Amino acid sequence: MVDDVSDPKFWDAAYDEKRDGWELGDVTPPIARVLGEMRGPGRAIVFGCGRGHEVRAAARAGFDVVGVDFAEQPIADAARMTPPDLAKHVTWRRADIFALEEEGAFDLVIEHTSYCAIDPKRRDEWMRVARKVLKPGGTLVGLFYAHKRGGGPPYATTPEDVKAALDRAGFRVERSETPADSIERRRGDEFLVIAKVA
Questions:
Q1: Is the distance from CB of 193 to CB of 175 less than 8 angstroms?
Q2: How far is CA 165 from CA 48, 75, 94, 110, in A?
Q3: How many helices (H) and strands (E) does the chain have?
Q4: pLDDT at 147 over 90
């Protein structure tokens, strides 16, 4: 078994073996709420998009969206699950987010369960990539899994660590909260942030 979270085979195996406990079957409620407040038009990108629930929610909110994931199966599932009226606003890409080359290409980055899945040593790099792909004044909407358990993935973090990493990357936090509308098993362990490129 591959045990390196920086190897796409790790994630392909997790999907193949149904070790995809992060899969909710729908957009997570805090992200759905924020997208309902924002509305497009604009370009959005979802890091670690999985089966694309947040991608489809962003497309419904009026954005043209790129969904990126490391693993092959969820991208194929996401494309299959996307109705034709949304598909014309969505691009699916199997890629390593750390290898993204677009600079200043997006108005919005959406994060849900990719930050907690990467090697924690790469978190500053993750933030720099999010900063790089955003336009001046662009927005990061992140629902960070801020649990306190050992091991991983998902790897633990704290709201303070997330805010410090955002600051180091050149983001300005506009709003943050421990969302009351998290799903029950994650309630109190999620940290919702809306941050702008400083």
A1: yes
A2: 19, 28, 26, 16
A3: 7, 7
A4: no
Q: Is residue 159 part of a domain?
A: yes
- CATH for 139: 3.40.50.150
> What domain count does the chain have?
1
> Do the Cβ atoms of 107 and 44 come closer than 8 Å?
yes
Distance of CA 162 to the CA centre of its chain: 14
pLDDT for the residue 80: 95
Q: In what order do the strands lie in the sheet with 43-47?
A: 90-94, 64-69, 43-47, 106-112, 134-145, 190-197, 171-177
**Tokens describing residue 61:** 């909110």
Per the domain annotation, does 2 fall within a domain?
no
What is the reported pLDDT for 50?
92
Give the distance from CA 130 to its chain's centroid: 10
Contact status, residue 172 vs residue 198, Cβ threshold 8 Å: yes
Query: Could you report the per-residue pLDDT of 36-95, keeping only the tens digit for each?
Result: 999 889 999 999 999 999 999 999 999 999 999 988 888 999 999 999 999 999 999 999
Domain contains 170 = yes
* Residue 31 pLDDT greater than 70, yes or no: yes
Inter-residue contact 96 to 75 (CB < 8 Å): no
